[in-house]
Hints:
This protein is an alpha+beta fold. It has 2 domains: 16-106 and 164-205, no CATH class; 252-453, no CATH class. The chain has helices spanning 16-43, 50-54, 57-70, 72-85, 91-100, 109-120, 168-182, 192-205, 208-221, 261-282, 316-331, 334-344, 353-371, 383-395, 406-425, 431-441; strands at residues 128-131, 137-138, 142-149, 154-160, 228-229, 242-246, 251-252, 284-286, 294-297, 302-305, 311-313, 376-377, 428-429.
Amino acid sequence: MADTRPRPPRAVPTGRLSRISKMGGLATGLAGGVAMAGAQALARGQRPRMRDLVLTPGNVSRLTEKLSEMRGAAMKIGQLMSMEAGELLPPELETILARLRDDAHFMPPRQLKSVLADAYGADFRKLFTSFDTTPLAAASIGQVHRARARDGRALAIKLQYPGVRAAIDSDLTNAAALIRWSGLWPETLDLTPLLDEARRQLHDEADYSREGVALARFGALLSEDDRFVVPVLAQDLTRPDAIAMSFEAACPIEALAEADPARRDAAIGALIELCLRELFEFRYMQTDPNFANYRWRAETGQIVLLDFGAARPISAELAEGHMMLLRAGLDGTRADVLRALEDLGFIRAGLAPHHQDAILDMADMGFDLIRRPGAFDFKGNDFADRMRRRGQEIGTDRDLWHIPPAETLFLQRKIGGLYLLATRIGARVDIAGLARRFADRGVAPGAPVSAAK
């Protein structure tokens, strides 16, 4: 099993000037590496491209380490680029982004003590009988600790990194400038939609009051579904920079790979069904499919759901658009599928016929999952490889380069993440049966409950 422990402690740069200095130091270091690599190439009689100079092993390591150290916006923009650029990015950049999807450094003890004092006051120790200073997890916005309240409640407490919320906008601007300068992003793709989505997500995820509402909302939505466990919000110990909830013991979701096949299939089927309920029934979705957000209780077979900072309402237009696409994929013509893809903004309207055919051929490969009767074996097929190869072929045609609207990005991430999880676990799920059931039901009427404060 992979080592999921956080990386070594390292203080989060807190002030605006210190964060700008970090980014400036990174740019200077990269520029020095570029100059050295360029000089060496010229001495060999070569005329290297800028991207080749930037993507040296030393620069890749330097860029990865500094962005991870800064957390916050620097990590988030890397995660979103990884999600949306697909096969258009160079493999060296994918190496960087894979690191940014992993656990971040955690705060050293002195900074942790300062954060606790800021959140709960100088006498914060009086609130707890125990507080584990080694975090359970560390990510882009904050880190999670296990604690026990004075009244005996076992808690998980997420503490926000200092300075991260105030630096979101400036960090994004600086990180984007660095990415553009480095040549790591294709010039023909507009980075602005990703920046806007990253900014929105970061401000949402840094709002712990908003996350508390989302946590309680999901608890209510799933209160009668005993397949899932949602932590209970501890409102009395929740602050603007700290959110407290019941600690729910469970093991990593990857442990399902060693479980009995029937339990394994049932758990992954429940998660896929939940995603469809979120889209078409709840119209409210937890959009971050990080494996660490799912835990499994072997003794009961239940799935513990964690981290609702990325939960968001789903508009009627988005839900109806995906229902139209689902029904077109099940029973419609290629023209129906094309119209649904255009309406959702997945592709540009008015593409040349041969471009339309290329997109629809790839869509047919995807819809084969929901048309094929019986259980789909996520591990025992080459579907992902075939889709990836087809995507790479399409990606060589710049006329087809296109980033969908920001409101669809989170849904692609959720579906893709669940596919990766199902493959990792090796589950077999009746995807066609689930798809048909929801297509027959349609979209639930009425507006979703907002996650706003």
